[in-house]
Amino acid sequence: MKKILHTILLVLMMVPNLIMAQQDAGTISKTWSFPVVYKYNEEVTWYFDLTGTTFAPNDNVYLWIWSPSEPDAGHFDNSSEFAKLTFVEGMTWKMTLTPTTYFSMTQEAIASSAGFWYRLKDKTGTKQTGVAQIAYTDFSSFYTANEMIKSYPAQPVINQGVSILFNSNLVAGFQSASEVHFHSGLNNWDVKVEYQAWIPESVQKTKMKNLGNGFYKMDLVPSEYYATVDGYVMENIVFLMVADNWAATTPDQIIHAGEYVAPPPPDFRFFPLNISKRDFLGIIRKNNEPGVTKLLYTITANSVILNGEFTGGVSEIKGFVNLVTALKDVPNVTEIHVLVKDNNNRTISDTTIPLKTVD
Questions:
Q1: Fewest CB within 10 A of the end CB: N or C in the chain?
Q2: Which long-range contacts (CB under 8 A, 24 or more apart) does 99-107 make?
């Protein structure tokens, strides 16, 4: 209850800054971290999906965070460079940090705080998102759970992170190990990343992170770690842990994958299907890729050229072109050529549309 009250007070403290904001950039779509689970004194990368906000790809975006502490205090209208996020792709930005260092706090102090509360903003604070929280998964219960293996999440998917924990205290032969390695594959060893003790690159890639007291962790994104081809369907991760140079091993283990639901493909069309120069031409594209926020069109009708753009987001971009006014004085126009591109300069449609004859 104390932590909840603390959180409410922190949010209320931000009300004056809401008044300062000149533009509400919208709600942050999604956040996640890699590693999936981590200690507060461990380096982590936070990812921010700004799909649906008014930020655009490659914009300079800054983190303004006030809990568990406020590292950039006093610089809301001129964010420091250390608070700047790195653009990844599409509508995703990231920041890599070690919480104890970034917030100048101990692990215990961070753990007893209200958590990570923040906004994302432009440098001057004239545009900012709503208040959001970065979720943290406390995995300390694993140390007393008497489980040999635990996966976060329990059912990983191929293109997202997974953290696999190992309690070596429960397996004979690991007590004196100087290193533990992750010997593994996908779909019952269909695609493998083997621990080969005589190959330095293999040793480095498969080495598990030592958490101390016989506990180890492996962090990976399956599609990247196993270098799978596009469209590969992951059904499971199979693996065993190896002590040093195969001095001891665990029994074979398996983690079943979760169902990956691919986003629906983009849907582009003109409407109505039959038009004349006395109509409005509708242009719509649904299920846009992250980062696609505009459709830019060039319509050519004889000597007349029309240029314009429509804005929107992932769910839909839609607009109408007034052919009535633009073509009313153009004689003998029987067709129009329509070129549509997105804001990443990719051609969406390049086509010729016939026009109905009108009296």
A1: C
A2: 99/40, 99/41, 99/44, 100/40, 100/41, 102/71, 103/68, 103/69, 103/71, 104/69, 104/71, 105/68, 105/69, 107/39, 107/40, 107/41
Please state the three-class secondary structure of 75-101 as a single string. Answer: CCCCCCHHHECEEEECCEEEEEECHHH
The answer to whether 277 touches 330, Cβ cutoff 8 Å, is: yes
- Please tell me the distance from the alpha carbon of residue 54 to that of residue 31, in angstroms, as a whole number: 17
Amino acid making up residue 322:
N
DSSP codes of every residue in 7-40: HHHHHHHTHHHHHH-SEEEE---EEEEESSS--T
**Quick check: helix, strand or coil at residue 3?**
helix
The whole-angstrom separation of Cα 68 and Cα 279 is 58
Contacts of residue 243, defined as CB under 8 A and 6 or more positions apart, other chains included, come to 168, 173, 174, 177, 179, 180, 249
Compute the distance between CA of residue 40 and CA of residue 351 in angstroms, rounded to an integer.
55
Amino acid (1-letter code) at residue 73: A
Q: Tell me: the pLDDT tens digits for 145-164?
A: 999 999 999 999 999 999 99
Phi–psi pair at 178, nearest 5 degrees: -90, -25
Q: Which residues pair with 32 in a beta bridge?
A: 47
List, in sequence order, every beta strand (DSSP E) within 194-334: 209-212, 215-220, 236-243, 248-249, 253-256, 267-271, 280-286, 294-301, 304-311, 316-322
CA dist 308 and 236 (Å) reads: 48
Q: What is the pTM of this model?
A: 0.75
Distance CA 195, CA 198 (A): 9
* Burial of 285 (C-beta count, 10 Å sphere; 0-12/13-18/19+): buried
Token pair 């693996």: residue: 239
Band (pLDDT 50/70/90 cuts) for residue 292 is confident
Residue-wise pLDDT for 242-269, tens only, equals 999 999 999 999 999 998 777 789 999 9
* Tokens encoding 111: 């753990």
Question: DSSP of 190-227, one letter per residue?
Answer: TEEE---TT-HHHHHHHBPEEEETTEEEEEE-HHHHTT
Side-chain-side CA neighbours of residue 127 (13 Å): 13
